[in-house]
Every structure is written in C-alpha cells, then in structure tokens.
C-alpha cells in the first residue's frame, strides 16, 4: 500500500506504508507531552520552536499551518508532523482547535541501533509530514 506525503517546497515523494511500519515496529516511542489548544478567529501562533518531534492533530475549524516555512491548509482530521527544532506558525481562519502530541522515538533494543541507522538513511522521516484521511469517519 502506498501513501503520499508532502515534503519540502512543492514536491512529493511516494513511500510504501510497509516501509513506515517497518521503522515504527522497530522503535519505541515515549510520549513527552500532549497539549490542547483552541484558537479564536484571526489568532496566530508565530515562531514556536518545537521542543520535540510532534504530531499536530486538527480537531475543529481550519488554519494555515507552516512548519519551517512550508504552508499547509489544515482542517478537521488533518495530521501534520514536525521534527524537533522546527519552526511552527499557525494562523486560525475562523477558529482552530488542535492537539500537539510530542514524542521521542528510539530503537527498541540496543542491538537494533545499527538497523535503525541503516533504515533512517533509506527511509528518512520527512518534515513536515501532512496526512489527511481520504474518507472522514463519523463517530457515534
């Protein structure tokens, strides 16, 4: 199965989902913090340096989100990824609500360190990494 991820300024790279799963299955992830924020129409967050790797999950409204200057129109159900140290800017368009899930990933076992270094050369984690479901699910 393939997924398309937006990378950098105006180009895209196709990466097999299996490649992503291989990396994630050989990693341990420590959630460092989860933050929730609601922004009012016209409110902005400018120049925020991400203190850890982040998944930004939009839950309501829409906004222009820039990660290291790369712009994305985020709306409900969108997920964006930003790497530690990236610069985050958000401009709410009527309003915007989101969660930031900050994490640190590492190899599960010390013997896997070389495996992870090799994989990271082949499969680099793009930043930003926008994802959007093809079909929205209605929770009941």
Offer a few descriptive terms.
about 140 residues, mainly beta, Jelly Rolls, six-stranded antiparallel β-sheet, two-stranded antiparallel sheet, 8 strands, disordered N terminus
Q: What does the model show?
A:
The structure is a single chain. This protein is mainly beta and 140 residues long. The protein has a single domain, classed as Sandwich (Jelly Rolls), CATH 2.60.120.10. It has helices at residues 17-25, 113-122; strands at residues 2-7, 11-16, 27-39, 44-49, 53-67, 70-75, 79-82, 87-107. It is elongated and about 45 Å long. The relative contact order is 0.27. Residues 1-14 have low confidence and may be disordered.
- Helix tally? 2
The whole-number mean of residue pLDDT values reads 76
Instruction: Just give the CATH class.
Output: Mainly Beta
Our Rg estimate from Cα atoms comes to: 16 Å
Order of helices and strands: EEHEEEEEEH
Secondary structure: number of strands? 8
What is the straight-line distance between the termini?
A: 28 Å
Strand content: over 45%
Q: Do you know the CATH topology?
A: Jelly Rolls
Give the helix/strand class.
mainly beta
Q: CATH superfamily membership, which one?
A: Jelly Rolls
Largest sheet: 6 strands, antiparallel
Helix content: 10-25%
CATH architectural group = Sandwich
Low-confidence stretches: 1-14
* Form type: elongated
Count of structural domains: 1
